């Protein structure tokens, strides 16, 4: 995947939230798309640091992100971990739990969209 793929996934998620085109499940589907975009963004961030993760589980990938960025951008790591945790909870919701609201889903999408967007220095690294 690439940045354009994650941007496309986020655009699809926002489209579902805006139109509700698949009924009650629109918010949950939008969260799955946002989670896929997050996975893509985290892989891109790690590739930028020379930490290819390829077939690693997302839990392992998030640990690598923490190691790769803890010294330079702890806020980025915290936002990615928060988004991953929240999206995982929403995507694996139990029948007795309330689903996410549209505003919660949009907030998570905004967090994912903002990952890695901060300014970079001339070498392309943070």
TrEMBL record:
<protein>
    <submittedName>
        <fullName>Uncharacterized protein</fullName>
    </submittedName>
</protein>
């Amino acid at each position: 995947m690439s940045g354009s793929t994650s941007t496309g996934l986020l655009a699809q998620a926002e489209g579902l939230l805006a139109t509700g085109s698949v009924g009650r499940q629109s918010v949950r589907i939008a969260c799955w798309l946002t989670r896929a975009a997050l996975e893509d963004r985290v892989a891109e961030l790690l590739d930028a640091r020379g930490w290819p993760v390829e077939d690693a589980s997302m839990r392992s990938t998030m640990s690598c992100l923490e190691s790769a960025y803890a010294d330079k951008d702890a806020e980025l790591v915290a936002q990615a971990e928060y988004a991953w945790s929240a999206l995982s909870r929403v995507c694996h919701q139990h029948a007795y739990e309330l689903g996410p609201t549209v505003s919660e889903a949009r907030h998570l999408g905004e967090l994912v969209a903002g990952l890695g967007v901060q300014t970079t220095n001339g070498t392309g690294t943070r």
